[in-house]
């Protein structure tokens, strides 16, 4: 093998690694935040590639794709693997967003939205609180380190240009997306149930005391009960985040195994 062919193979390995590392900076929480400039994210992906290149290059010889179209297909495959790791983490935080929307609708904050700089979208008030608290817990517990570890481990589990997609991966993505609604309702259930009890009590009052203006009494009561229950649940919410993040790490491993 001459020097030109050897350099071509190493350059192909580096570019494919850079593509996979760039995938997590597209959608992953914290890494893919829109308030982080694109140049910073690109520089971080390049730095990750530089650090991981000697290790991955030593795992085995990767030959450069024989044609431009084959190389383009490999680039899309590597980008999908990086995106998949970030997508699974994004699904967990989407469940937090959904829980916040359900809580806001029940408490009475449905018309109050705030701008989220990390996603560039308007999100509900309680959803913003839960999401920001989730990001803080995610960083404090070194969840971002686990994402980086999963990225590094993916090169061993799914070698470069060796992705083998199958039908089980599609079903996994459907299950992960379905988990947004299940997990979101689990988080929002205590507040939702408390507001339901308040509405039942107000309904009984409306039947027994027709002269009482239920709308004047009900709206502040729902607000006080909802905020009170939420304040009591915050310590348990942090504990629930630990379980949620552990499930996220397991899902990333399962998804990478489906690509082998």
Automatic annotation (TrEMBL):
User: Which cellular component appears as one GO term in the record?
Assistant: bacterial-type flagellum basal body
Q: What is its main location?
A: membrane
Q: Where in the cell is it found?
A: Cell membrane; Bacterial flagellum basal body
Its membrane topology: Multi-pass membrane protein
| Domain of life from the UniProt record | Bacteria
PANTHER family, per the entry:
FLAGELLAR BIOSYNTHETIC PROTEIN FLIR, SURFACE PRESENTATION OF ANTIGENS PROTEIN SPAR
- Function recorded in the entry: Role in flagellar biosynthesis.
Recorded family membership = Belongs to the FliR/MopE/SpaR family.
Q: What is this protein called?
A: Flagellar biosynthetic protein FliR
The organism is Selenomonas bovis
